[in-house]
Specification:
Layout (H helix, E strand, L loop, with lengths): L3 E2 L8 E4 L4 E4 L2 H25 L10 E3 L2 H12 L3 E5 L5 H6 L4 H7 L7 H8 L3 E7 L5 E4 L6 E3 L2
Parallel strand pairs: 1-4, 5-6
Antiparallel strand pairs: 2-3, 2-4, 6-7, 7-8
Protein name: UspA domain-containing protein
Length: about 150
């Protein structure tokens, strides 16, 4: 489980990417501390998956890149992943409105909606990709290439 890294460009901030962590910083000590915490969390999740289903091979990969979504897709391609599961959070309505992601503002301003990491990975991943979001009322919303926001009661 060695982190892959792309060549850093001049003095721009770097982003540390995993399935649940994205940190932008210039301070190398902060990156080292965050990387350690990231590995601890990912290894705990891997151990849980392996103890529950020992026949399923789980691999952890942390990649540093400027663009998060293409980095995740490239890592899945490099490692020959058969399934990519991504946690998904929905922004609050106020945040979507402020960022110009509200449909009415989109039509008025003529801006195209900037797709997020999960949507990009679902469309471009070389394997099956699932975006999973927990619902407050119970269950989960699962998105894939074939189904969008499929409700799963688990």
């Amino acid at each position: 489980m060695t982190p892959s890294s792309s060549s850093p460009s001049s003095n721009r901030p770097r982003q540390m990417v995993s399935d649940r962590t994205a940190i932008t910083t210039d301070d190398s000590s902060c990156v080292k501390m965050s990387r350690t915490r990231c590995y601890e969390n990912l290894n705990a999740m891997r151990s849980l998956c392996e103890s529950t289903r020992p026949e399923v091979k789980v691999e952890v990969c942390v990649t540093e890149a400027e663009e998060r979504a293409p980095a995740v897709v490239d890592a899945a391609r490099r490692h020959g992943a058969s399934l990519l599961v991504l946690g998904q959070r929905r922004r609050a309505a106020t945040a979507r409105w402020i960022l110009g992601l509200w449909p009415a503002a989109e039509r008025r301003c003529g801006r195209r909606w900037q797709r997020g990491l999960v949507e990009y990975c679902i469309e471009h991943a070389p394997c099956e990709a699932l975006g999973v979001r927990r619902r407050n009322s119970g269950g989960y919303l699962v998105s894939s290439r074939r189904h969008r926001d499929f409700w799963l009661l688990a």
